[in-house]
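Handoff note, outgoing to incoming analyst
You'll be picking up this chain. Sequence as last confirmed:
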Amino acid sequence: MDDRIKKWLEDILIAIEEIDAFFERIPKRYDIFINDLLIRRAVERNIEIIGEAVNRILKNDASIAITNARKIVDTRNYVIHGYDSLAPDILWSIVVNHLPVLKTEAQCLLTFAG
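Most recent structure output, in case you need it:
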C-alpha cells in the first residue's frame, strides 16, 4: 500500500478519535449534541477531513475497500456546500452509525498494510 494512502487512513482515524474525544467530557446523547454548537461544528470539520481523505484514497487506488466510500465523499461535499441545509440529525447518525464501521475498516487496512 502506498505511503500516502496509509497517511490518509491515519488522518481518518485521527478525525474519528477526535470526534470520540468530544464525547469524553459530555454524555453521548443527541439532545446534548444538538444544543452544543461547538461540538457540532467540530464534528462537521472532522467529517470534512474524513471525506477528503477518502476522496484522495479513491483517486489513488479505487480498489481500497471502504464501505460507502462514495457516500462519505458526497457527505463531505454536502457538509461544505450545503452547510445551510445540514440537519444536526444527519451528523448525529454519522457519528453513531457510520463512524464506528469506518474506524474498524481503517484500522484493519492499516494493520494489513504493515
